[in-house]
Amino acid sequence: MIKCRLNDSIFVFPRVYNKKIYRKVNWYLSYSINAQLVCLAEWWSGSKVIIYVDKGDFEKYYGKEHGYLIMNHTYEIDWLLGWVILERFRLMGNAKAYCKKALQFMPILGWNWKFSEFVFLERNFDKDKKNIDHQVGELCDYPDPMWLLLYPEGTRFNEEKHKASVEFARKHNQPELKHHLLPRTKGFIASLPAMRGKVPALYDCLTVFKEDDPVEPTMRNIMKGKSVTAHLYFRRIPLEEIPESEEEMDKFLKNLFVIKDKMKEGFLKHGDFFKYTENLPRYEPIVTKRRYYSLLNSLGWSFIVLIPMISYIFNLLLSGQLIYFFTALGIIGIFYFLLQHLLNMSDINKSSAYGTNSKKKN
After folding, report:
1. Is the pTM of this model over 0.90?
2. DSSP assignment, residue 276?
3. d(Cα 296, Cα 313) in Å, to the nearest integer?
């Protein structure tokens, strides 16, 4: 990860002259950063991802076309397991998402997302609408398959936010969800016009962990090397099947989450996504296999950067000179701060207050 500043310089110059070259270069550099966290999940902790998907669609479409990925935002590491599965779909270098604008200034990951053309939002729709239309239109012109991730709930699930969501839904005659927050539809609706004719399909994804699993799905447990197992349901919906009026698009997205809610209820109670959804075809689970690329990438950068850095720090600590000793402590302190920042960013107990206001608007 230390190489990020070098990557930033490499990112900037090709874009000035040729956007296609810039994006090709960015694919590899973005992958090299993201793959280090993927390696942490699938090789260090040995975590597993089981997917439920139509096998015909999986072989024909997944990883071979642009897609609009809609996921629930329930767990601390749902984003990380999303990266793991996108790596296995060969899409991680072109995985994009909507993010809070402030995250673009976060060292390493935020800089990477900025140069990878993520859609940054201020959570003020009047300001964001124009940016969404422009940025999504830009992403749709990518030369290689690209998936854009949206968490329509707008924030990670917790009990306080769920209570506010139910109160809002009850007050406005909207669906009351048991396991999810009522999705915010404005960003979804604003994005679709730029996609039509360019993005072939929406990919509906539901992420669930079993409640009786011995290891809680948290970033701290991943870093401790503890394995978790994620279950991801995928459904491909051609974009032409999504209605074009704003009112109907609003209903479409909320209905997706009503279905997600029933599926999660069935899975948590009976271990069966399809227990309460008779109209959906039943998909058999597929245990996806990890690839060696994330491991080789991480080992390569460890030999190039990490081992020399550790050697340098030890030499400073053992130099016998006070200024070098405190320089080494400063370097260690910076890495500790960045690590804690990453952990706090994923911690449900330290998530933002966004979504707790019952006066929110969709």
Report:
1. no
2. T
3. 25
